[in-house]
Amino acid sequence: MPVSLASADAASSALPFTAALALLPPGVLTGFAIVIGLVVGSFLNVVIHRLPIMLERAWRADAADALGHAEPSGELFADDGLPARYNLWLPRSACPHCGHVLRAWENIPLVSWLALRGRCSHCHARVSARYPAIEIASAACAAAALLAFGPSGKALAAFVLCASLIAMSAIDLEHQLLPDALTLPLVWAGLLVNLAETFTDLHAAVIGAVAGYLALWCVYWLFRLLRGVEGMGHGDFKLLAALGAWLGWSALPQIVVIAAVAGAIVGLVATASGRMRFEEPLPFGPYLAAGALVTLFAGTPLYAAFAWGI
Ligand SMILES: [Zn+2]
Prior knowledge:
Largest sheet: none
Bound molecules: zinc ion
Number of strands: 0
Strand content: under 5%
Main location: membrane
Catalytic activity: Typically cleaves a -Gly-|-Phe- bond to release an N-terminal, basic peptide of 5-8 residues from type IV prepilin, and then N-methylates the new N-terminal amino group, the methyl donor being S-adenosyl-L-methionine
Helix content: 55-70%
Order of helices and strands: HHHHHHHHHHHH
EC number: 2.1.1.-, 3.4.23.43
Number of domains: 2
Shape: globular
Domain Prepilin type IV endopeptidase peptidase: 159-268
Structural class: mainly alpha
Distance between the termini: 59 Å
């Protein structure tokens, strides 16, 4: 059967999977994205809860090793009271209050939390609202990526960026830590994604990664020399490097301005309401993430406003 050149080109340029997805009605596709977003959100909750514990164990093991202390081996439980074998997959999720291992129906993203009214089915202790909040945020990002970029590899890449930013923001808010295990792979992923000019060209991505790191590195040293304090953590440099790699160097000024303004407003409100002391460090990761999400989905409206103003 003869095939027209145009349709052959379209078929070869689109991945078979995304081409098949494009045939689905938009409502079904959005529902699909929301379900995927909820499931990924559930996994992000595991990462947010477990990764800091895993890192702390690794640091303690390194410190013990450096000091020449023998590591206890063969024990079922570690110093933190959790099983010795502890990673993103093991042990199975359990209630932190009573240790009740969650059954499959208690582990359905969002649905289980709503059905159990935010309480453990065994001891009735409250389950943090952070769990459904992360799942909803992840589902919203999946739907937004689909609406903004259509059923494409670009939408999938955008969702990977959003999901990483959600996990990092939550860990930074709770532990004031942006783990290398998340920031560094995000730098490499940004460069790889832009090999195909997905969000920007490779030149802009490489310069963005370097400029993002150096910009905050300079701010850090300026603070340190002028005021003798550490204004931010090294994780912030790596996160901005990752954002430069994903969105290109030209996105960086807008991301930093949005982050600084949002951080200053939240900091002032929290200080004025007595929830925070003035000198207390504010985790900067969530604000950089907010700046990145605005830039990812809305482009660079600040530049347009500035150009219009002059
Ligand atoms: Zn319980």
